[in-house]
Amino acid sequence: MKGLILAAGRGTRLRPLTHTRPKPVIRVAGRPILHYAVENLLEAGVKEIGVVVSPETEKDIREALAGYRVSYVLQEEPQGLAHAVAVARDFLGQSPFVLYLGDNLFQKGIGRFLEAFGEGVSAVIALVRVKNPSQFGVAVLQGDRIVRLVEKPKDPPSDLAVAGVYVFTPEVLEVIQDLKPSARGEYEITDAIQGLVDRGKRVVGVEVEGWWKDTGRPEDLLDANRLLLEELSPRVEGHVEGSQLTGRVVVERGAKVVGSTVIGPAFIGEGALVEGAYIGPFTSLGPGARVVRSEVEYSILEDHAALVDVALRLQESILGVGAAVRSRNGLPRAHRLILGDLSQVELA
Ligand code: G1P
Fold it and tell me: Residue 315: which of 290, 296, 302, 300 has the closest Cα?
């Protein structure tokens, strides 16, 4: 069994964060989203892992996965998920494989999908009941068998969304070879799976256990961060002085928490600085982030982001790498903003 993680996407719904970096390297609960995918595969016993990258994402993805032994496959053009699989043909060979969308998070891992992949099964599809099925691939089940699959239907035939993990025999590569592009001009993995169904193959749907998150939008990132922080084991390796830590808090190596209040669950990354500050529940600070004489909760500060001398508490916020919010001294008393394309600011 091999693993194929897709990490070539542009993450347009997460701009401006994804103007400069691909979505799977954004940190939730202190780690790049992609780490959770690799860890879930390894935990399920899938050791040979390929990662599909694009010319835009390759550098950052390689950096984020530097500690792991994985192979890389380059998808030159963004032509859809099925196309990404076709590009990885040489890596996959004649092996069955798990296809894992690099922006998906599964609380309980992927073991149950692999268990369902027995004799005579051509594909196992992870499914999850959702309130907004039109935003996903949607499956129609008969017993445990999928009889129909549609991508982002206006009028969904069920509330069973396709979550981003699929187990395939190499048969799917033959179906992909015959695919035509969809209305949005992409080779859709849902069409490939429908192709298997149409050929009379056994395609099984297995419901996700525990929570599942597709990190497509900013609110999903914050929610994923919350869900992962819920499972945090407290650990203090950094320097804590004159501060109160309550609940499950991680303070990584080289981090400093001075004269502050931290209420967990919260993650303070390597080399971060928290001084005269309040860090509230469901907050993650990336490496080198700084919160000084300010308050923040239910937020993500990425690497080297800074929040300094800001009077009002920051909530439901995401600060990208190196982004800074600080108060402005002196006159005129005005907001001064330098925002990248598609940035969003809400002032109280
Ligand atoms: C993709 C798939 C869709 C699936 C979703 C899960 O959509 O095309 O079938 O439900 O991932 O995350 P995307 O998020 O790329 O629009």
Answer: 296
* Ligand 1, CB within 6 Å, residue ranges: 81, 101, 104, 136-137, 151, 161-164, 190, 214, 216
Q: Which atom of ligand 1 is nearest to the CA of 214?
A: 12
Same domain, yes or no, for 93 and 167? yes
pLDDT, tens digit, 9 for 90 and up, residues 133-191: 999 999 999 999 999 999 899 999 999 999 999 999 999 999 999 999 988 889 999 99
Omega cis (within 30) before 181: no
Residues 239 and 284 in one domain: yes
In a domain, 88, yes or no: yes
User: What percent of the chain lies above the pLDDT cut of 90?
Assistant: 86
Q: Whose CA is nearest to atom 11 of ligand 1?
A: 164
**33 and 106, same domain (yes or no):** yes
**Candidate of 6, 36, 81, 213 to mutate for ligand 1, largest count of ligand atoms within 8 Å of Cβ:** 81
Biggest alpha carbon–alpha carbon distance for the chain: 74
What ligand 1 atom has the least distance to the C-alpha of 103? 12
Measured CA to CA, the distance from residue 6 to residue 72 in angstroms comes to 10
Residue 333 has pLDDT above 90, yes or no: no
Residue with tokens 């996965």: 65
DSSP state of 25: G
Domain boundaries, position 76: 2-228
Shared-domain flag, residues 197 and 113 = yes
Q: How many domains does the chain have?
A: 2
Q: For residue 104, give the ligand 1 atom closest to its CA.
A: 12
Are 189 and 85 within 8 A, CB to CB? yes
pLDDT of res. 11: 81
The label of the residue with tokens 């099984």 reads: 204
CA nearest neighbour of 88 among 172, 179, 199, 211: 172
